[in-house]
């Protein structure tokens, strides 16, 4: 317990850093994922190509490489932001590719007749997607979205290698102070468990309330 009690502020700072990365990157991933999923099912060919390229590139790019590209590449083009913002961009964009595919799979579960009926009533593509298809698709994608966001929370550990304050990075300071590396990582693991189990609990509640009855 000494590792935790004597360094509670350090753990707390790392925990809040990971929590912030998770929350902000999740919001960004959901927004971009929704946009790209809409592109992938759009009737316009160029939008489908855009969505496909986005997903293919990001899903097949190592997250660490994406961090290097964002944190070290964007400043070369004059975009200078705090490293935490760059980390949110990298995490959010990477995860958005997976969110996009989850949403697209949910959209594909909705019978085509639903969309055809909506179009026969004079609805536009946006109205059909927003008012008819997505509300039904959302019910079936709650669990996989939760799993994807849990993975995002764990992936945020990479940000510590780029001078971003987060939970895993606390082990460096504690190791230099001579604390047991085993107990240092035990309490780091507890912090991640708190975050991931909280996400799981939220999505379990959402699934019970809005999920598809089995």
Automatic annotation (TrEMBL):
Record's keyword annotation contains GTP-binding: no
CDD domains: TM_PBP2 (cd06261)
ABC transmembrane type-1 domain ranges (all copies): 15-203
Source domain of life: Bacteria
Sorted UniProt keywords: Amino-acid transport, Cell membrane, Membrane, Transmembrane, Transmembrane helix, Transport
InterPro entries from the UniProt entry: AA_ABC_transptr_permease_3TM, ArtM/GltK/GlnP/TcyL/YhdX-like, MetI-like, MetI-like_sf
SUPFAM superfamilies linked to this entry: MetI-like
Residue ranges of the TM segments: 15-37, 49-74, 80-103, 149-169, 181-206
Protein name per its UniProtKB record: Amino acid ABC transporter permease
Organism annotation: Streptomyces laculatispora
């Amino acid at each position: 317990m000494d590792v935790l009690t004597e360094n509670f502020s350090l753990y707390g700072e790392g925990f809040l850093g990971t929590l912030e990365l998770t929350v902000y990157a999740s919001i960004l991933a959901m927004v971009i994922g929704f946009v790209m999923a809409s592109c992938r099912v759009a009737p316009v060919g160029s939008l489908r190509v855009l969505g496909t390229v986005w997903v293919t590139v990001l899903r097949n790019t190592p997250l660490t490489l994406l961090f290097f590209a964002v944190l070290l590449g964007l400043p070369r083009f004059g975009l200078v932001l705090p490293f935490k913002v760059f980390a949110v961009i990298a995490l959010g964009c990477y995860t958005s590719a997976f969110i996009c595919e989850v949403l697209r799979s949910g959209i594909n579960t909705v019978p085509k007749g639903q969309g055809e009926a909506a179009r026969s009533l004079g609805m536009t593509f946006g109205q059909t997607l927003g008012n008819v298809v997505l509300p039904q698709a959302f019910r079936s994608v709650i669990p996989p979205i939760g799993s994807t966001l849990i993975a995002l929370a764990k992936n945020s550990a990479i940000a510590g290698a780029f001078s971003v304050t987060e939970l895993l990075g606390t082990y460096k300071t504690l190791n230099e102070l001579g604390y047991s590396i085993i107990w240092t990582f035990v309490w780091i693991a507890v912090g991640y468990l708190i975050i991931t189990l909280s996400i799981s609990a939220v999505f379990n509640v959402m699934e019970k309330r809005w999920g598809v009855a089995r």
